[in-house]
Amino acid sequence: MFQYYDPETTCNYQTPDEMKRVWDVQLDLASKFSEVCQRHGLRFWLDGGTLLGAVRHKGFIPWDDDIDLIMMRDDYDRLNRIASEEFTEPYFWQTTYSDTGFFCGHAMLRNTQTTCIGPDEHDAPYCRGISIDIFVLDGVPDNPVAYALHRLAAKAINQATRFSIRKNMSKKVQKWLFGCYEGLFRMNSVNRSRHIGLISWRYRHHEVLEKSYYDQTVMLEFAGKQFPAPAMYHQLLSNYYGNDYMTPKQLPTFHGKKQFDPYHPLTL
Length: 268
Known about the structure:
Layout: E1 9-10, E2 13-14, H1 17-40, E3 45-46, H2 48-57, E4 68-72, H3 73-86, E5 91-94, E6 107-111, E7 115-117, E8 130-140, H4 144-166, H5 171-186, E9 195-197, E10 208-210, E11 217-222, E12 225-230, H6 233-241, E13 259-261
């Protein structure tokens, strides 16, 4: 472990010691993920609040509770094929295919010897260890009509998959629907697209970006470690958070109130 829980106050905010221990687990997960990607020549970058934290704080945003990483669809697909061999206890590569009852357009890397329960996950049937998010970048149609149809189809299949889970349809049906969902994104190869986006999570207009943002990579410090980031991180962060992203704003986490236990696995 990185022992990243020395007392500190940043931006007039004192991060609780317990959250520091959660960060410690997440840093270990990110380090393991980076190690696997380097060994197999897979590209990934810091993303979202983690990228912002690296640029502004050289580590976690003081009130943040997770790590966000992102990779292109082709590399993500390659990683999925080897994940079960590379991520063994206490690591678990969680996707809709690998964990019954779990539905998400991206993967999570979890530590099975810990606990993290979100506001709507108290009765969830899947693994709920402390995790990091691995998001996926997909190509987006350049033609406005094709873009609108593609976005509409993605939302429709997403809702159909969620409906099948709520109604306890067979796992085969659920996975078939999710396969259609991912297949829709593979229709627009990143290599042939000028625009890309995190569309398998939330297909939102302002998160569709120029692919050139990821043409070059730089290494940024994050909590004493070095991780890859898009060289054009200023443009990326401005797109996400506005031109004043360097001014801290204490906002509630997107995930709501989570319950963490960095010492024990969940007992069902």
